Amino acid sequence: MTIDTSSLLNFLLVFVRISSFMVTVPVFSGRQIPNRYKIGFSVVLSVLCVGVINEPIQSFPLGKMVLLILKEFMVGIVLGLVANILFYAVQLAGALLDLLIGFSMASLFDPTFGTNSQITGRFKNILAVLVLLATNGHHLLIQGVLASFDWITLQSSVPAVMDGRLSTFLMDCVQQMFMIGFMMAAPLIGTLFIVDVALGIIARTVPQMNVFAIFPPVKILIHFMMYIFILPGFFYLLKVLFETMFGSMNSILKIMGA
Asked: Per the UniProt record, which residue ranges are transmembrane (predicted)?
């Protein structure tokens, strides 16, 4: 069984890749953006992209077309997942800090990830999204998925899925996510550790002091005071995070397009 080729088939393959990318990429995948807007934006990008793709398909077996649709779906998912894994470093840093200062007992719904997140993690995530939008990082994300058609054509295969290069690179992204997330939280983690030691010494020397009533507000106060001094360093780490994220998207295109 064959299907007559037309621009509609090209549009279908392009739409599958772009729409699957929108499902996993940071900012666009958040639940604060309605699904109809995501679909409409994917349709507009697909129409614009089909007009510049010079890859005519005259006839196609149905079985191969299904495989190509699955391939396009995988390419879009993996490309957005690489960016989302690294972007999750911000949420990880906030979760580590909330665990130390006691904010982990209070959680807020995070529409970006669709899960409950702690207060500091939500705050850091909002700052990261604002910086990404202010520096036109969302334009680079869109440019990344559009550039993927130059590396991975509609009719090409992705051998990196079978030889393990793709899974190895995703594991490297997870490793970088943990490293950057810990770097974001390290100054406050060290400070709060020193505060815990000092408060522990005070509790041993002054046993009459009500530890559970005094120590939590003190740790929260020191946490926010330190935040004023380390906020410039956080923005620098966001710069490193975004450079790593865009570089990883470029690397994953080279791996899948090789």
From this structure: 7-29, 35-53, 65-89, 126-149, 177-199, 220-238
